[in-house]
Amino acid sequence: MSCDSGEFAGVIGGVEGVVTHRIYGQVAPMAKPAETDLYLPLKAHFEALGYEVKAEIGAADLVAIKEDCEPLVVELKTGFSLTLLQQAVARQSMTQEVYVAVPRWSGRAGWRAFKGNLGLCRRLGLGVLSVRLRDGFVQVHADPGPFQPRKSKTRRAALLKEFAAREGDPNQGGTRGQVMTAYKQDAMRCAGYLREVESAKGAVVAKETGVGRATQIMADNHSGWFRRVERGIYALSEEGEAAVMETGAGG
């Protein structure tokens, strides 16, 4: 049999409950599963693919061997954890075919958490399996292999643009909540100028503050600091007055 991962994923992911319960019986659902509850469904599925499967070989929870194929190792846990990932990465010194297996998620929140861990496992070169305990269905979500992240030119450009535009380093790394961005710095410059002159055309604000996007900032008014006096002319709102007083913008 071929060891092609595509064939492997297709067979396991597409055959729900086959072999597993005819040989080993149904796995009853339980509130708090044990790692051992994952073993028999996984063993039956791998055996259906022509592997010989044994448990607890050395440090590995499950080892599957097939002639002319790379040895396959699966680490079993009742949920994702740092310990699981550390163990799985350690098994990569034995074989490149390393999977982690966990019970299938429940609900949307469970799927979101699973999806996040799935992405992390792919970056680590690990395969991912889930086991639906009520019927033993095993699904392959990722096969082991090198990970090449997709680069985003748009995100890279936005990162470099914000870095270049931001004046100084006004934030503390790890800050949660309000962050001083280049956009907010520009808005504060506009607000500071308007506090001095009361009202002005957008073009004048842009020229006097050096903020080229001043008109757009005041028109969009995401901060709530500005109000339009008449067409093309802006002044500070009450919120803007309070913000300027608090930050001292405009001197």
Helix content: 40-55%
N to C succession of SSEs = HHHEEEHEHEEHHEHHEEH
Question: Structural class, judged by helices and strands?
Answer: alpha+beta
Poorly predicted sequence stretches spanning 5 or more consecutive residues: 5-29
* Count of extended strands: 9
Mean pLDDT: 84
Rough outline = elongated
From the alpha carbons, calculate the radius of gyration and give it in angstroms: 29 Å
What is the number of domains? 2
**Main β-sheet description:** 6 strands, mixed
Q: Would you give the CATH topology of the largest domain?
A: Restriction endonuclease-like alpha-beta roll fold
Strand percentage lies at 15-25%
- The CATH class assignment of the largest domain is Alpha Beta
- Main β-sheet, spatial strand arrangement: 1-2-3-4-5-6
Q: How is this structure best described in words?
A:
- It is a single chain.
- The chain has a 6-stranded mixed sheet, sandwiched between helices. Strands 7-9-8 form a 3-stranded antiparallel sheet.
- The chain has 10 helices and 9 strands.
- α7 (182-197) crosses α8.
- It is of the alpha+beta class and 251 residues long.
- Residues 5-29 have low confidence and may be disordered.
- The chain has helices at 5-14, 20-24, 36-48, 82-91, 107-123, 153-165, 182-197, 202-209, 214-220, 238-247; strands at 52-57, 60-65, 72-76, 97-103, 127-132, 137-142, 199-201, 226-230, 233-236.
- The protein folds into 2 domains: 5-142, Restriction endonuclease-like alpha-beta roll fold, CATH 3.10.640; 180-251, Arc Repressor Mutant, subunit A (Orthogonal Bundle), CATH 1.10.10.
- A hairpin with a 6-residue loop joins β2 (60-65) and β3 (72-76).
